[in-house]
Amino acid sequence: MVTLTADRVSYTYREKPVISDISLQVKSGEFVGLCGKNGSGKTTLLKCLGHILSPRGKVLLNDIDLISMPSLVRAQQIGYVPQSVHGRIARSVFDAVLMGRRPYITWGISAHDLDIVESVMELLGLLPFAERDLFEISGGERQKTLIARAIAQEPAILLLDEPTSSLDLFHQLEVMEVIASLVADQGIAVVMAIHDLSLAMRYCSRIVLIHNNRVVRDGPPADILTSELIADVYQVDAYLSSDGGIPHIVPIKAAYGA
Predict the structure, then answer these.
(1) Residue range 78-95, pLDDT digits in tens
(2) In contact, 101 and 116? CB cutoff 8 Å
(3) Which domains, and CATH codes, for the chain?
(4) For helices 169-186 and 139-152, what crossing angle results, to 10°?
(5) What pLDDT is recorded for position 145?
(6) Is 95 helix (H, G, I), strand (E, B) or coil?
(7) End-to-end CA distance of the chain, in Å?
(8) Contact 51, 26 (CB under 8 A)
(9) Residue ranges of E strands in the chain
(10) How many CB atoms are located within 10 Å of the residue 78 CB?
(11) Do residues 209 and 233 touch, judged by C-beta distance below 8 A?
(12) Helix, strand, or coil here: 258?
């Protein structure tokens, strides 16, 4: 069992609070959706949880402060998928996914490393793109490559920043199914910033709702994503439906002109 704990975490950028006094705990086997409006602090919180940013307060992995944890050990435990890639990280799609094995490679790339990379690429339908230049494929396929790289890292905790935002409908569902299966079958913990509330309600086991840079609600999706809270946080009138047993949210109109 792995536990990631944020203890009174805050982060300020250019003297402006981005997240304030956030405490939460995520355990193995949880699929947590971070929800909230643009600018609410979701990306900053993810980066603090992954020690990409150094916040005030503490982030603990099994009671060990990430600050004191060797970077190699941290990389073996926590995987992070950004919204997009900035700068060239690898020449080919295959090389980009192989980078996920770096925390484990000592003297050279092993057959085991190559087997994991091939398996993950097959899982996400990336084998046909293996030799393609990372920047000559579509934005959606590039995003799937970043997800594959993180999965190849075999982390106990996977942090994802809006991983479906650049994907079409088919690939959104494909990625969500893959991530949900990792949670169910391998027991990893997932924390995902996500804008699509219907996808969050369908796949996440828990929702952490951020508003005004703070966590305002934390619990099961059915308890958090109510018409009342959506109106309060998003300024949108909406109703919840469950056609065919699949829950989804139907927006009606902006409630307050927002």
Answers:
(1) 999 998 776 566 789 999
(2) yes
(3) 3-225 (3.40.50.300), 226-258 (no CATH)
(4) 10
(5) 92
(6) helix
(7) 42
(8) no
(9) 3-13, 16-27, 31-35, 56-61, 64-65, 78-81, 157-161, 189-193, 206-211, 214-219, 236-241, 248-254
(10) 26
(11) yes
(12) coil
The two tokens of residue 51 are 């020690």
Token duo for residue 41: 């602090």
In sequence order, which residues have a C-beta less than 8 Å from that of residue 16 and are 6 or more positions away? none
The Cβ of residue 249 has, within 10 Å, a number of other Cβ atoms equal to: 21
| Phi, psi dihedral angles at 186 (to 5 degrees) | -110, -10
The helix or strand, by DSSP H or E, that contains position 179, with its residue range, turns out to be helix 169-186
Q: Find all residues with CB under 8 Å of 144, minimum gap 6, and list them.
A: 124, 125, 126, 167, 171, 175
Q: d(Cα 127, Cα 205) in Å, to the nearest integer?
A: 30
Q: What is the pLDDT of residues 37-76, one digit of tens each?
A: 998 999 999 999 999 999 999 999 999 999 999 999 999 9
**Amino acid in position 190:** V
Residue with tokens 């690898």: 90
Question: Hey, what are 226's tokens?
Answer: 């109510």
CA atoms within 13 A on the CB side of 59: 23
Structure tokens at 205: 């086991």
